[in-house]
Design a protein that fits this description.
Helix content: 10-25%
Number of domains: 1
Strand order of the largest sheet: 2-5-1-6-7
Number of strands: 7
Structural class: alpha+beta
Distance between the termini: 70 Å
Order of helices and strands: EHEEEEHHEHE
Shape: globular
Length: 170
């Protein structure tokens, strides 16, 4: 199949986007994050074990509530086109498709792809091609989006009916 007919070719500058990433997030409730790494043979971007304490950027100590394993395109792909990030992520996951499927069959293990997309001005949005959607489906993964809007966005003023003065009929 050719991609010449696509309405939206790859665009690494994606003018309506501030930044974007794609991540595989696994919550291995019945396994340790290290077990996930061993099974998938993929080095994660980040792991955390439930019960461990970490200090955040504000200096506050936080206790990790849920173990998680994360593989993210952040810092690996220099593009504002989400498809490039998904291509990178899928290319890293696909060689371990059988092992990923085995993990999906373990009780208590939850996973999916999360895409973050930051809009420059509230217009436009990410595009996916059937190729990315097919590969995500073949891996048995759900795909969710976290979309953030920046810039001035005009929103018409909406008044709730309780805010209006009662009508007076004569």
């Amino acid at each position: 199949m050719t991609t010449d007919s696509r309405r939206t070719p790859y665009n690494d500058n994606y003018e309506t986007c501030v930044s974007t990433t794609a991540s595989l997030l696994i919550y291995p409730n019945t396994l340790s994050p290290d077990d996930v790494t061993l099974r998938l043979r993929i080095q994660p971007t980040k792991v955390a074990q439930a019960g461990e304490t970490r200090t955040n950027s504000l200096g506050r100590k936080l206790t990790i509530e849920k173990s998680h394993w994360l593989l993210s395109s952040e810092g690996h792909i220099d593009s504002k086109d989400l498809r490039r990030h998904l291509d990178w992520l899928i290319s890293h996951i696909q060689p371990s498709a059988a092992e990923l499927g085995a993990l999906q069959n373990i009780a208590g293990v939850r996973m999916g792809i999360n895409c973050r997309w930051e809009s420059l001005d509230g217009q436009g949005g990410p595009t996916l091609w059937p190729e990315q959607m097919r590969l995500i489906s073949d891996l048995g993964l759900e795909c969710s989006f976290s979309i953030e809007f920046y810039g001035e966005i005009e929103v018409p003023e909406v008044r709730h009916s309780l805010d209006r003065e009662p009508s007076r009929s004569g």
